[in-house]
Design a protein that fits this description.
transmembrane, calcium, potassium:sodium antiporter activity, NCX_ion-bd_dom_sf, globular, Sodium/calcium exchanger membrane region domain-containing protein, transmembrane helix, 13 helices, A middle domain of Talin 1
């Protein structure tokens, strides 16, 4: 084993996580995993990309959602919207598992999954508009952030209305700088995400090779755990503050994003014809069972008992991946 190469790539991997966190903060949290998936595909590492999205979907439920249940202080009662999200996630997961099992993750299916994600987003907006589903309430920290964003939004709007700006006594040009600031932050966030995706995927492959692990196993475990840290933090904060519906919506939304858009990108751009190092039946079953467990816990309103079961199952999954299924 080349210890110098191993230590260097571990360091690069850790640095990539920090850059990823910065990029996610400046851009969009869900694009974190998509950045890693795209970077892995560009490096012709489809097993790492597919393992990352499957491992992340497992980690979101068994790792993050379980923590939220454990930290919730009182009895859990999920609303109608959370139950709808859970049902949609179970349907999407079932579709993905069936397609993957029968080796149908081809370019046509990839386009279909991406289109399905677009339909899902539009249907959620429509359901909220019609009152079938409710937009998740914000936590305290989110409310503070939204207040700041609202002030910035007002500044951006006043750029197009000089009369209002002059009447309010504000300094001309202030809103222009504010708008430029947001555009600049968006740009730097995109650059950071792209760089982080490259660092994580490249270093992950090198570390996996040094440890004689397959790219799929490393993506299912270490990479997926690192890229879902924001979801784990949100779950803990939401659970401790009693915002169970935020927790459920975040988990369902993240996994639907993974199993439609991210899986579609992998199927459309990656080479999944040779599945000798992509996944095994145990991993597909774990993805589906975790989604089923999430659905049942939301429908039945289960709390800490379900959290303990999920967390124990996640630890068992990681142990089996590093021993029996290390490939």
């Amino acid at each position: 084993m080349d210890w110098d190469s191993l230590i260097f790539n571990i360091g690069v991997f850790i640095a990539g996580v920090f850059v990823l966190d910065y990029g996610a903060d400046k851009f969009i949290d869900h694009t974190v995993i998509l950045a890693v998936v795209v970077a892995a595909i560009l490096q012709h590492r489809t097993p790492l990309a597919l393992g990352n999205l499957m491992g992340s979907s497992i980690s979101n439920v068994l790792g993050a959602f379980s923590l939220g249940l454990l930290f919730h202080p009182t009895r859990i009662d999920f609303d109608r919207s959370a139950k709808i999200y859970a049902a949609v996630l179970l349907a999407v997961t079932t579709l993905f598992v069936v397609l993957a099992f029968f080796n149908q993750l081809n370019k046509v299916v990839g386009g279909f999954l991406i289109a399905l994600f677009a339909v899902y987003v539009l249907s959620i907006f429509y359901a909220i508009y019609k009152g079938v589903a409710a937009a998740p309430e914000l936590s305290d920290s989110d409310s503070d952030a939204e207040s700041t964003d609202a002030v910035d939004a007002v500044d951006a709007v006043t750029e197009a209305t000089p009369l209002i700006e002059s009447q309010s006594g504000q300094i001309p040009g202030r809103s222009t700088r504010t708008l430029l600031y947001h555009v600049t932050q968006l740009f730097f966030g995109l650059i950071a995400l792209s760089l982080a995706g490259y660092l994580l995927s490249h270093s992950a492959v090198s570390v996996a090779d040094s440890l004689h692990l397959s790219g799929t196993v490393f993506g299912l475990t270490i990479v997926s755990f690192a890229t879902t840290l924001p979801e784990k933090l949100i779950a803990v904060l939401s659970g401790s503050r009693g915002h169970v519906n935020i927790m459920a919506a975040t988990t369902a939304g993240s996994n639907i994003f993974l199993l439609t858009l991210c899986a579609g990108v992998v199927a459309l751009a990656g080479d999944t014809r040779n599945q000798s190092d992509t996944f095994v039946l145990f991993e597909l079953i774990t993805v589906w069972v975790s989604s089923l467990g999430f659905f049942l816990s939301v429908i039945l309103g289960q709390g800490r008992i379900a959290g303990v079961i999920f967390l124990a199952a996640y630890l068992a999954f990681l142990a089996l991946e590093f021993t029996v299924y290390r490939r």
